Amino acid sequence: MNKSELVDAMADAADISKSAAARALDALTDSVAATLKNGETVSIIGFGTFSVKERAARTGRNPQTGEAIQISASKNPSFKAGKALKDAIQ
């Protein structure tokens, strides 16, 4: 399912226009991104938790040359599914 299909499904389920559903989806994704950027987590009970995981700096290998390279530390978004979501797909 891509974004436009998700907007269509949201509009049908909530009995709202597609443009309103698109604005709601954009507002949700923007809010989650802004919260994660501030280092906070977003918990949606029954669905899951969005958080930021920090990866430490480490040494890696260039696959072409085998040379050791330094990989810098980074922050990556993470999602952990909630119990209701896990049960829904079982």
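Next protein, fold it too.
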Amino acid sequence: MVLEPVRAQVLATRIIANVDGALARQFRLSPRHRSIGMLTVTIDDVGYTAVDEATKRAEVDVVYAKSFYAGSAHSSGPLSGEFIGVLAGPTPDEVRSGLEAAAQVVDRGACFYALDAKGEHTVYPHVISRTGRYLSKVAGIAEGEPLAYLIAPPLEAMFGLDAALKAATVRLAKFYGPPTETNFAGGLLTGSQSACTAAAAAFLEAVIAVAESPLAVR
């Protein structure tokens, strides 16, 4: 099976140079967080990966990151997409650098892959060689450790996670049981970079097997 990339898009971005105190309290900003940057993205898991990258390339923290219910096909508006992320930093320039780093990941980095010709059946077998502050906290691991970020539709994800965990010396650090906000499922696996890569390959192979023969076992 030839897997075609399914890329996300950044739909909207804005920077607030000096955030109002009431909003700062809602985001629980520290005194050093004077500026925030916001972005919406069409695919949530790519968005989470992108804002994590921002923490590695700019002096910013992820202070808000959420998926929207039912996915981008049912979004609240043309600029909503499937994900919103908010970065906070000491200056507008740092926040801008963070947004630019996130946009590069969305445009040219992490992506889903299509399992069918229409691109309606997709999988995310992504390996992060060095996590930033955000995903490290989500997974409960040390900053800079490798991570396999594995997402697929519900049944495929459960079948794939089992294969991934059996294929390499990895640990399930975070489980996304179905249904999630976007009705996908999966998990974050931690281990060495080679182990995470092997786990992601096994996950992908298992998901493809389901896609190619969904009723193999009745």
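About the second fold: The beta strands are 4-6, 10-16, 35-41, 61-67, 83-89, 112-114, 122-128, 147-152, 171-176, 185-190.
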